[in-house]
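Why do we bother with holo predictions? Because pocket geometry can differ from the apo form. Keep that in mind while you read this record for BIS(adenosine)-5'-pentaphosphate.
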Amino acid sequence: MKLVLLGAPGAGKGTQAVKIAEKYGIVHISTGDIFRKNLKEGTPVGLKAKAYIDKGQLVPDEVTCEIVAERLKEADCQKGFMLDGFPRNVYQAQALEKMTDIDVVLNIAVDLNKLMARLTGRRVCAACGESYHVSTFTQSKCLKCGGDVIQRADDTEETVGKRLQVYTEQTQPLIDFYQKKGKLQSVDGMAAIDDVFADVVKVLDAVR
Ligand code: AP5
Ligand code: MG
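The structure, written out:
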């Protein structure tokens, strides 16, 4: 299965991706995670990406597309994969068409007005990436691995505002783009996490 997860910042792409990867055994490729890993390791790609991520802007297309193209050539992607956070604009979607054929694009539909609280309240484990929210989690260590739970640098109110604006201007048009190609399926991302996943499973079982 070759799957794209589409959705606004905070829609729950990462949350659902972990569950999908576990159930279907497919590789989870998050461009945001790749950039953050590079940043942590201080690579040239990481340093370049930081300037954009900190401002809530998209990292330049040529950098992002090159990373995805190389990743998709790896052996673990040959039987299928799930892209989380790519493509993010029409240019990237057209670049992806030249790399491979996608089976389904799953849009996690959310109310954009509710995302500021979700994102500014999000906390993540610096070691394993597990996601939490301050409304239900106030500890400093990850329940899964014991790592430090931190706030993502781009989850401040100002940067979240910019990310939502970039989403509306550049990424939202992809809903139409994939609808016209007959690839789009949507789930209600405002439901509880497990209910969203139940809907995701219905969609994926039907296209598999
Ligand atoms: P990226 O890391 O992709 O961030 P994003 O798209 O802004 O999305 P998030 O990871 O913030 O949200 P999510 O949808 O994964 O939500 P999550 O599951 O964590 O990108 C970061 C930056 O990297 C970009 O701004 C850009 O600079 C750069 N970049 C990345 N890809 C790029 C590309 N292709 N081109 C150019 N630049 C790129 O959930 C959020 C919170 O909500 C959590 O606390 C979670 O517990 C909670 N939650 C999840 N689902 C629910 C639910 N159903 N109900 C209640 N709470 C929920
Ligand atoms: Mg994410």
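The radius of gyration is 16 Å.
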